[in-house]
Design brief:
single chain, 217 residues, alpha/beta, 8 helices, five-stranded parallel beta sheet
Amino acid sequence: MTARGLFITMEGGEGVGKSTNLSFLEQQLKSHGIDIMVTREPGGSRLGEDLRHLLLEVRDETVDSMAELLLMFAARAQHIKTRIEPALAAGVWVLCDRFTDATFAYQCGGRGIDRNAVSTLETLVQGRLRPDCTLLLDAPVAVGMARAKNRGVLDRFEQEERDFYERVRATYLEMAESSSGRYRVIDASQPLERVQHQLLKVCSELRACWGVRHSAQ
């Protein structure tokens, strides 16, 4: 029987270096012979990518927060069904740039949506699927915003006010504290070399966890 793959998510606010460090972690895991699929949310499937465009593009109308939430979960439902679950069942590790924790952070923390509404959708769409490990790249909002502005044109989320991002960060840190067994908080305000040194330690932990799980099959 093929051992189920590990489901790893990388979370964080704007400008914390997720893309760079996601690629670094992917390379490290592959160098140890691990079959890995890298994906992202919103997105990950053809339908999901179409919905991602709708969610991120700057509009001349206000997007209702509940409409935003439902689009997020519509993309997630398709992503799970067509890519995440098949990969995990085949023993492939899934490394995902954001997942449902981002919805709690951005839509609950940032927008003020009731957590119970998101929890209900989480159960409906995901069933028992939850990440095995979540890496939270954390940096002060001022640092992240300065980095994001250097990337060029900002999407709809990147144009929010600072208070929005402060609420997002606070929600992420609250979740990390309450789910410490799943979370690994990475200080992303440090130089890249130090950030990746922290990721190497997590990589070792994950491979050890995989070895235990694999031997138990």
